[in-house]
Amino acid sequence: MSRIKSLTDRSLADRWAEVKSPDDWWDDMHDAVTDTIKGFLEGSLECELLEQLQASRYQRNPDRVDYRNGYRNRSLQTRLGVIQNLRVPRSRSGTYQSQIVPRYGRFEASVEDLVREVFLAGVSTRRVGEVLEPLMGGSVSAQTVSRMTKSLDAAVRAYHQRPLPDDGRYLFLDGIVLKVKGAAKVHRKVVLTAYAIKTDGTRELIAFRVCASESGPQWEAFLNDLFRRGLQGKNLRLIITDGGSGLHEALQVVYGFVKRQRCWVHKMRNVLAKLPVKLRDACLAQLRTVYMAETKGSARQRYRSWAEYWSPLVPKAVACVEKDIDELLSFLDEPLGLASKLRTTNAIERAFREVRRRTRPMSCFNNDPSCERIIYAVFSHQNEKWKDRRLPQFTHNT
After folding, report:
1. Is residue 101 located within the same domain as residue 111?
2. Distance in angstroms (rounded) separating the CA atoms of residues 313 and 271
3. Same structural domain for residues 303 and 242?
4. What CA–CA distance (Å, rounded) separates 149 from 121?
5. How far is the C-alpha of 242 from the C-alpha of 180, rounded, in Å?
6. For all residues of the chain together, what is the average pLDDT?
C-alpha cells in the first residue's frame, strides 16, 4: 500500500491531480471570487450608510439624520459574474442613496461599457446577450442593450455642439447614402460629412449630419454650422468635394473664398457612365495619367492629348471632364507629397465602409438616433486612432 504524502511533500502536480477537472476548478474559483466581492461590497455599503446617517447602530446621537430600515436584496452584474442576493441597507425615510450601488442599477459601469463595445463592433442587440453570457455568467436582454446604447445620445449631442478650432488646412466634404427605417417603409438618408487635415498634419472627422437629401439648403445649413462653431476657413487652402451641384452652391455662399478640388473618383465614375463598354478600359487608362502627373503643366498637356484623341469618339465623356478641369487639377498647386490625399474624398468613403460593415447584420438603421450613434462611435474610434499622428507627408514647410 502506497504511503500518502504529507501536504508539504506533495508537488504542484500532485495537488493538481486531485482536481477532478479544470472546469470544476474554475467554477469553484469563480464562486469564491464572487463571494469575496459580495462580502466586500456589503461591508462597503454598511460603511457608506453609517457615514450618511452620522450614527452607528443603536447610537443616540443629536447629529443623526435617519434610522436603519432593514435591507433589500439586489443582483448586480459585474465583469466577473453575477452577484446574487446582495444585501443593500435601507434608511427609514429614504435619505440613504448609495453611490456604490445606485438605485435601479443592475450593471457595473464597466459591464455597460463592454455591452456598448460589443454592440458597436457589429453584434445585433438580440445577440449581444448570447455573446456575453459565457463571459459574465448572466444574460443581457435586447431591451437592456438598447437602453445602454441610448446613453451615447449625450455624447452625440456634445460632438455636434462642440467648438471647432480654425485649424483646418484641407477640408473634405461628401454625402454618403444610408438606409433608415421610417413609419411605413425604409428611407434613403444622406449623411453630410466633413473631414479635415489640420495645419499640424493630424486628421479628424469633424462633423456629420443626417439629412433627407444633398440639396443646396441642406449643405448650406451644414456648412454654416461649421462656420458658426469656429471653422471660419482662415487657414484653409483647399476644399475637396464630390462635385454635387447643391454642395457647390452652398460653398459659394459660406466658403466662396477657398479654392476647390473636385474628387477624381467621382469624376471617373461620371465619365465611365458616358462610355461604351468596349472603350472604357482604354479611355479611363489614359485619363488616369492626367491626375498622376507631378506638375500642373504636365497634367494639362496630358489632358489635352486625351481630349484631342477621345473627343471625336466620346464627346460627352470629354465634355464631362472639360467643364471641371481647372478644379480637377487644383491639388497640384499643393505639395506633391500630398497629391494622393487631396485628389479624392476617399478618406470619408473609408470611414463609412466601417459604418456599413456595422449595419450589415441589421440591413438598415431603426431610426435617425440609432444611425447617429453608430456613426459617432465609428468616427470617434477613427479620430482616436489618428490623434497625435501627423501625416508623414507633412513637414514644417507644408
Report:
1. no
2. 13
3. yes
4. 12
5. 23
6. 80
Q: Does 28 have pLDDT greater than 60?
A: no
Q: Quote the CA–CA distance of 76 and 326 in Å, as a whole number.
A: 64
pLDDT average, residue stretch 36-45 = 65
The least confident of 92-106, 309-323, 324-338 is 92-106
Residue range of the domain that includes 339: 166-386
> Do residue 77 and residue 136 come from a single domain?
no
Together in a domain, 141 and 183:
no
Report yes or no on 330 lying in a domain: yes
pTM for the predicted model, two decimal places: 0.71
pLDDT of amino acid 219: 96
Higher-confidence position of 329 and 86:
329
Q: Do 65 and 135 lie in a common domain? A: no
User: Quick one: what percent of the chain has pLDDT higher than 90?
Assistant: 42
How far is residue 215 from each of residues 219, 220, 338, measured CA to CA in Å? 6, 9, 30
